Amino acid sequence: MDTKTDSRRKELGEFLQVLRQRSAPEAFGFPAGSRRRTQGLRREEIAQLAGISPTWYTWLEQGREVNVSADALSRLAKALQLTRPERAYLFEMAGRRDDEESAPVDDAAPPALIALLEAIGAPAYLMGRYWDVLAWNKPAAELFAGWLDTADKLRKKAPETTPNLLRFVFLDPAARSLIVDWDIRARRLAAEFRADSRTRLEEPALQKLVDELSQASPEFTQFWKQHDVLERQGGQRDFNHPKRGLISYQQVTLHPVEQEQLKLVMLKPA
């Protein structure tokens, strides 16, 4: 028997048992009553809420070898009112892919992060899942002269206007002058974007962006077809600024816990 699989079945069963026992019956429409022999919901009640067989659910909780579908897991997650981390853990322990995890999510920039950007003294910006730049601070606008400073003015006239890092790098001639070793950085960006988009490649908005870049940039077409896949990493970033000359930064990228599709990018002077 596969030890890893067996351990995960056991962990899944214990996880479900704890979730069930901590669930107050009245919160799910069942009377609390004094006749309940155990704390929380009964197995039959969970099965009823999720629309599955009580026997099948019992086997799942006991850690037996049960072929559980993603749909059944999704119904269980909704029935138990799981949080996003709990749902992700449920699917991980069951060895199934959660289709809802790759569904489009809201890319709105949280006010707290916007306030954080303003408090950072170095260039910093917030990117969405398609690498739209949702918010940025004044040092970032000054660094990316001809892009974010202009975008800031345009956004005041048209709030729906959102700059995009990939469009800037591959379609704006100013990027080739600003970014030192443009070809190396551009190639890496394409590989990082492919890795970052691995669960969203079928989304129409992403396909539209890739098609747009492919039609307008031979370099993007070349890099994208190479299927290089790289995780986004920090490190030194050099720029030929039109006013300040050659300047260097150390880049750090952070992911907000509640919106992991967002990226907070900070550039610390080297």
UniProtKB/TrEMBL annotation:
Membrane-spanning intervals of the chain: none
Pfam families membership: HTH_31, MLTR_LBD
Protein name per the record: Helix-turn-helix transcriptional regulator
Domain HTH cro/C1-type residues, every copy: 39-87
Taxonomic lineage of the native organism: Bacteria, Pseudomonadati, Pseudomonadota, Betaproteobacteria, Rhodocyclales
Highest taxon listed in the record's lineage: Bacteria
